[in-house]
Amino acid sequence: MSDNEYLTRSIHDLTAAAWFGGSLMGAVGLNGAAAAAQDPRERTRLSNLGWKKWAPLQAAALVAHGVAGAALIAQNKGRLTTQEGVGGATVSKALITVVGAGVTAYSRVLGKKIEKLSDEGAQGATEPRPDASPELASAQKQLKVLQWVIPALSGTVVVLGAKHGEMQRPRNVLQGWLR
Question: How far apart are alpha carbons 9 and 167 in whole angstroms?
């Protein structure tokens, strides 16, 4: 593995880890802490403040992950077509990454809706009050699901990255070529 490929793989793995870790910490830590605010109006406001601070870093991580992924594909194009399983694993990982990035972007759209309606107050960052407007309740209910879908998708990307690494072991490369 060249130094360039080592750097590319490191960027690819670290950005996937940032996406996974940031989304999981936000769902558990940030949203959980915001739900403990005394004032119901502060629950969604505080959660949104935290997510707004994280969003630029997360977006940068997703872009860097995509660029590094494309570079890894280019650096390993021979293995994609000749080693059994590599092409399929790469397509699966790319599709999950694109879906995950889309879900992540959509969750920010929902967060902005919730932010605009934060004066209504809420039970928690993703739990509407019984008297919440339909728009706020809908956005919160969707976000409640997506806050767990995003770490599941980004975690799958991390696991598939590990699978790709294992596929590069000499014995696995040889077995893949022989098949």
Answer: 14
